[in-house]
Specification:
alpha/beta; Rossmann fold; seven-stranded parallel sheet; binds NADPH dihydro-nicotinamide-adenine-dinucleotide phosphate; Sc_DH/Rdtase_CS; oxidoreductase; oxidoreductase activity, acting on the CH-OH group of donors, NAD or NADP as acceptor; SDR_fam
């Protein structure tokens, strides 16, 4: 059987854990050469070794995507090394949860710097390359929280709403260049995401929610991404909303 992505190069941010890691492994298993980006270089090296042990090709690049220069360098280096960039998966993100009253606005800044601006920086950097190639695919990881607001999730909701709005405007700007844009909106996925929630009440609440059902795994989201990026060129999967069967909303 021919691998579906054997002529493709994919950059995955947030590739050191969770959804990004699972996506990097899934795209590599279909033959894509993978550029792995995140801040923890030892974790990226482990993912790269795993891909290489399976006969794939992976290049780890330590990157803080909230730094515009680093985001630009990531895209540039990927293009310099492989001579093309076909897929960008923006998976790097954090969830800082808790009520608006009493929240620390510095946490909001940190979350918007990553969830919104980081994704915008990598997108901005890759667009000239994709336009020159007249092909490319940008996959942005939003959330169910990008479609449904809930008390205690307001700031995260706002960041993911921004991802959805940016992605749709982007799609309208680039479709004539044969560049596709897909938004993925996962429900609860068992990853490190909730380990980084600083508010202890919100953290416990979300860990309890996660334990109350059969959560999705990173691999489930990776399969949805793989579906989107392996469609024929005339098909643009704009949006995939994917919840655990047990999750109500
Ligand atoms: P993880 O915490 O497992 O992964 C987050 C990734 O982002 C890590 O690889 C982390 O790596 C990376 N990251 C964090 N800060 C930066 C930074 N400044 N620069 C570059 N990379 C960074 O969580 P998930 O895999 O669950 O999250 C991935 C995406 O999925 C996020 O956008 C999240 O909002 C979204 N999502 C998750 C859901 C869930 O239930 N888990 C549900 C819906 C959406 P490092 O620390 O090494 O930099």
């Amino acid at each position: 059987m021919t691998a579906k992505l054997s002529d493709k190069v994919a950059i995955v941010t947030g590739a050191s854990s969770g959804i990004g890691k699972a996506t990097a492994l899934a795209l590599a298993a279909e033959g894509a050469r993978i550029v792995l980006a995140a801040r923890r270089s030892e974790k990226l090296d482990q993912v790269a070794e795993q891909i290489q042990a399976n006969g794939g090709n992976a290049l780890p690049i330590k990157t803080d995507v909230t730094n515009q220069t680093q985001a630009q360098q990531l895209i540039q280096k990927a293009n310099d090394v492989f001579g093309q960039v076909d897929i960008l998966v923006n998976s790097a993100g954090i969830a800082i949860l808790g009520e608006i009253d009493g929240a620390n606005p510095a946490d909001w800044q940190r979350m918007f710097d990553l969830n919104v601006l980081g994704l915008m920086y990598t997108t901005h950097a890759v667009l000239p390359i994709l336009k020159a190639q007249k092909t490319g695919h940008i996959v942005n990881i939003s959330s169910v929280a990008g479609r449904i607001a809930r008390a205690g999730v307001g700031a995260y909701n706002a960041s993911k709403w921004a991802v959805n709005a940016f992605s749709e405007a982007l799609r309208q700007e680039v479709y004539q260049h044969q560049i596709r844009v897909t938004v993925i909106e996962p429900g609860l996925v068992e990853t490190e995401l909730f380990d980084h929630v600083t508010d202890p009440v919100a953290r416990q609440h979300n860990l309890d929610r996660l334990r109350s059902l059969r959560p999705l795994q990173g691999e489930d989201i990776a399969a949805a991404i793989l579906y989107a990026v392996t469609q024929p060129p005339h098909v643009n999967v704009n949006e995939i909303l994917i919840r655990p069967t047990d999750q109500e909303r």
